[in-house]
Design brief:
single chain; Glucose Oxidase, domain 1; alpha/beta
Length: about 475
C-alpha cells in the first residue's frame, strides 16, 4: 500500500525517521569521482585495472566497518573468465586489400577457417537479386540494409539479421559472408569495433568457449563498398583462434542483522564495478570511464553500506559488487551459482545499474511488471519507498517485453531472477554517452544519484525489517 500524507501512517511506515539523511551527497560525489576517474582506466573486466578498482572497493568496505563475506574470510570471490579470440597472425584479404580484424574489418565470431574463394557481390541480398545465383563455394558480399520492427532495437536488428542471413547463405554453400555497412549501420560498426576485436567471453566450460571451424561472417565499414562491389576479386583468409582464462572478482561484504532469527536471512544489494577499459581514441580520450555505467552503482552501494553500518536492520545486509558484468553478467552468474551464503537465505536482490543521468525527476524499476515481475510484494515495497523519498516519475516502457532494447536482460539482477529469487533493478536508463569515453563523472547529476540511492536504501531497509520475506509470484516465467 502506498503511503499517504497522514501523519499516523507515516509513523507506522518503515520509512519514517532520519534514515533518508543517512545518504550523503558528498560521500556519493567523492566515491563516484574516485571509481569513475582515469586512475582506474575504465576497469575493464578481467584486467589488472578491474582488480585494482576491486581492491579499492574492498578497502572502502573495510574502512566503513563491514565484515568480509567472500571466500576464506576475505572480501573477495575470485573466478575465471574464458576469453576466445582470433590470433594476431590471422590473415584476411579481399582482392588487393589486406584487412586487420578490429580495425579495417570485424569478424563477428572467433573461429578457425582457411578460405580461398571468389567474392560475389549481391547488392542488398534481396530475393530478386539472389534469384538464379549459385553461392556454393563463394564468399558472398552484401550491402547491409533495412530497419527493425517497432519491438526490436536497431542493434539487435543488426545482430539478428547478420546471424540469420549468414546461416541461410552458409547452408546454401557459401564459405564466407561479408556485410558492408550502409550509412546507419556504420554508426554501430564504429561503436562495436573494439568489442568484436576483443573476442568472446564466458565462464569456463560453457558452450561458447568451444573453438570450431566455421564459415566466418565479416563486417566492413561503409567506405569499403567502392571496392567490394568490383568483380573478379578473391577472398583469402587464414583464421586461427586462441583461448585462455584469467581472473575476475566479486567483492562481498556484510552488515549482520540484529534479530536472532532474521539475521540468518540476507537482503542482497547488487551492482558491478567493471566497464570498458582503454579503447580506441574518441575526441582525444581513450579511457572509457563508465561513470554512469556503473560507478554510480558502486557509489550508491558504498553509501548504503554506511547507512546500514550506522543503523543495522533485523535482517543481514549483503553487498555484492560483481566483476565482468560487461562481458556477459559473468560475475553475477558466478555468484548466483556459487553464493558465499546459503542461496535460500537471500530474500531479495536490489540491483543498482546506471543511476545518474537523464531527467532529474525520472527513473525506472525493472522487474516491476509482468512477465519480468517475480515478487509483487517486493515491488510494492519499492514503490512505497519511492513515494516516501524522491517520488520519481517511473518510466514503465523500458520494463515491457516489447521494448526494443531488452533492458531487463542486461544487468545483474537477471542472474538471480532466473533462480527464482525476488529481484528488481533500479536504473535511470540509457543516454547518448552510454559506452563511450564521454561517460564521465562530471556529467552525473549528483542530486539525482542521491535520490535513487535513498530509494534503494529505504527499500532495502523495509525488506530487512519486515516480518515476512518478499513472496515469490506464482508461475513466474520470463519471455526468454
Amino acid at each position: 500500500m502506498l503511503l499517504t500524507s497522514n501523519g499516523a501512517n507515516a509513523q507506522r511506515s518503515p520509512f519514517a525517521g532520519d534514515k533518508r539523511s543517512a545518504i550523503k551527497e558528498e560521500d556519493l560525489k567523492r566515491d563516484l569521482f574516485a571509481i569513475g576517474g582515469d586512475h582506474f582506466r575504465g576497469r575493464e573486466g578481467g584486467t589488472l585495472d578491474e582488480l585494482k578498482a576491486s581492491v579499492w572497493i574492498a578497502e572502502q568496505a573495510r574502512a566503513i566497518g563491514l565484515q568480509p563475506a567472500g571466500d576464506d574470510g576475505t572480501y573477495f570471490q575470485f573466478f575465471h573468465i574464458q576469453r576466445t579470440r582470433l590470433t594476431k597472425d590471422s590473415q584476411l584479404r579481399i582482392g588487393t586489400h589486406q584487412l586487420t580484424h578490429g580495425k579495417d574489418a570485424m569478424i563477428l565470431a572467433p573461429g578457425v577457417a582457411t578460405i580461398n574463394a571468389p567474392l560475389l557481390f549481391v547488392g542488398t541480398g534481396t530475393a530478386a537479386e539472389m534469384a538464379n545465383i549459385d553461392v556454393k563455394g563463394k564468399a558472398v558480399a552484401i550491402l547491409f540494409s533495412g530497419a527493425p520492427s517497432a519491438d526490436l532495437s536497431y542493434r539487435r536488428f543488426v545482430g539478428q539479421t547478420m546471424r540469420d542471413k549468414s546461416a541461410e547463405l552458409v547452408k546454401a554453400g557459401a564459405v564466407a559472408v561479408v556485410f558492408v555497412s550502409d550509412a546507419r549501420a556504420q554508426n554501430l560498426y564504429e561503436n562495436w569495433t573494439t568489442s568484436y576485436e576483443r573476442g568472446r567471453y564466458s565462464l569456463p566450460g560453457e558452450a561458447t568457449t568451444k573453438v570450431v571451424g566455421q564459415a566466418p561472417t565479416i563486417w566492413l565499414p561503409a567506405e569499403a563498398l567502392t571496392w567490394v562491389r568490383q568483380s573478379g576479386q578473391q577472398l583469402t583468409a587464414t583464421l586461427k583462434v586462441e583461448s585462455f582464462a584469467y581472473p575476475s572478482v566479486n567483492i562481498v561484504a556484510t552488515v549482520p542483522g540484529t534479530d536472532a532469527q532474521l539475521r540468518k536471512e540476507n537482503v542482497l544489494f547488487s551492482t558491478h564495478q567493471d566497464h570498458d577499459g582503454v579503447r580506441k581514441i574518441v575526441a582525444g580520450d581513450s579511457i572509457w570511464n563508465g561513470a554512469d555505467d556503473n560507478a554510480t552503482g558502486c557509489a550508491a552501494l558504498l553509501a548504503t553500506m554506511r547507512a546500514f553500518k550506522q543503523k543495522p536492520a533485523k535482517r543481514t545486509a549483503l553487498f555484492v559488487f560483481h566483476g565482468a558484468e560487461e562481458r556477459g553478467l559473468l560475475g553475477s552468474r558466478y555468484y548466483a551459482a556459487n553464493p558465499t551464503v546459503p542461496r535460500e537465505s537471500i530474500v531479495a536482490v536490489l540491483n543498482a545499474e546506471m543511476l545518474g543521468r537523464n531527467a532529474p525527476d525520472s527513473a525506472a524499476l525493472l522487474g516491476s511488471q509482468l512477465p519480468h515481475r517475480n515478487s509483487l510484494s517486493l515491488v510494492n515495497t519499492a514503490l512505497a519507498a519511492n513515494q516516501a523519498s524522491a517520488q520519481f516519475k517511473l518510466d514503465t516502457l523500458w520494463d515491457k517485453p516489447t521494448h526494443p532494447e531488452g533492458w531487463y536482460f542486461r544487468s545483474d539482477h537477471l542472474s538471480y531472477a532466473r533462480l527464482n529469487i525476488p529481484a528488481i533493478c533500479y536504473t535511470t536508463l540509457l543516454h547518448k554517452d552510454y559506452h563511450t569515453p564521454e561517460d564521465e563523472p562530471e556529467r552525473i547529476n549528483i542530486a539525482k544519484l542521491a535520490g535513487v540511492t535513498r530509494w534503494i536504501y529505504l527499500t532495502g531497509w523495509a525488506v530487512a525489517n519486515q516480518k515476512e520475506r518478499p513472496a515469490l509470484d506464482k508461475d513466474f516465467k520470463l519471455e526468454r
